[in-house]
User: Fold this.
Amino acid sequence: MGKHKGGSLQTQNGASSSSLQTLDRPKSEERKISRSPPSLKQRIWAKIEASLWVIGAISAAIYGDGQYCLPELLLYDKRIRRVSLYVGLGFLVVNFLFNVYLRLWLQWLKGNEDWWKSAPIATPLATFCGLCAGVAFTVALWPALKYTAPFMVAVVFMGFIMAPHLLPSKLFLSPKKTGR
Assistant:
């Protein structure tokens, strides 16, 4: 199977036994990656980027297709596919509930700083629901907006995602610290 060269066992694919031992290391021995807090320049750039996405989303909602604003288009236009719109709204509600569970319940109320480890399947499911909502909204808006529908949906989604970055952090209480 392997060849012994200079105190290290070589496998057929060339990996040494010492590198294979790192794969078998228990998770308790893994090193934690320490992140330094973002610099002032990085925080300012993040606020500017979030502001631009929110301004784009507001502009897309106000100007809509150039004739009607987006809410009027969704409510009154006969070309909108209602079934796709309602499916998209359903996925959006499920995605919102996932975020409430992960961010508010687990992180803020329960004080669990490793919320992604407590519910590892929740983040991929929330991502899946968000993508399905985006596809359903694009299908719903396609008859009215044609080729601009995917761009309109993407800009509005990114505006909603980036909007919490603009809220002052002092509005929220720090999460409970538990000694668990």
